[in-house]
Amino acid sequence: MDKWLWAARFFKTRSLAARACERGRIACNGQKAKSSREVRVSDLLQVESDAGEFQVEVMLLSEMRGPAAVAQTLYRETETSRQLRLKLAEERKAMPHFEASREGKPSKRDRRKLDRFRGRA
């Protein structure tokens, strides 16, 4: 399982894929999957990663990590998963973005901006 997830580029390393299996973030046909589980063609996988939640059907098997174009041929994402992911992405874009406030004194550049804003010098 961890080799296939790594080859399909859901995770950057095999150890991250194995850790996701241990934590129960990978399900195969509705059951939690161990990293040593054999992946078969037509298995339905639920994958939770930093990139999001995916529901995919295994189309091809591979134990070698290749280019992204090749990795995308290993699986097919279900339509409901794709729609849900796109909906969540749109919601994130619609949320207001706030800059992190700086701590400490303003810099010389910041003080000059404040002075211009207040109408001084």
Describe this structure in words.
The protein is an alpha+beta fold. It has one domain: Structural Genomics Hypothetical 15.5 Kd Protein In mrcA-pckA Intergenic Region, Chain A, CATH 3.10.290. 38% of the residues lie in helices and 17% in strands. The chain contains five helices and five strands; from the N terminus they run H-H-E-E-E-E-H-E-H-H. A five-stranded antiparallel sheet has the order 2-1-3-4-5. A hairpin with a 2-residue loop joins strand 1 (26-28) and strand 2 (31-32). The longest helix is centred in the C-terminal third of the chain and has 16 residues, at 79-94. The radius of gyration is 22 Å and the shape is elongated. 17% of the residues are buried. The mean pLDDT is 90.
Topology:
Elements: H1 2-7, H2 14-22, E1 26-28, E2 31-32, E3 44-49, E4 52-58, H3 68-71, E5 75-77, H4 79-94, H5 108-118
Antiparallel strand pairs: 1-2, 1-3, 3-4, 4-5
Structural class: alpha+beta
The rough form would be described as elongated
Count of DSSP H/I helices: 5
Output the CATH class name. Alpha Beta
Radius of gyration: 22 Å
Order of strands, main sheet, comes to 2-1-3-4-5
Distance between the first and last residues' Cα: 66 Å
Number of domains: 1
Instruction: Give the helices and strands as they follow along the chain.
Output: HHEEEEHEHH
Described by strand count, sense and barrel closure, the largest sheet is: 5 strands, antiparallel
**What CATH architecture do you see?**
Roll
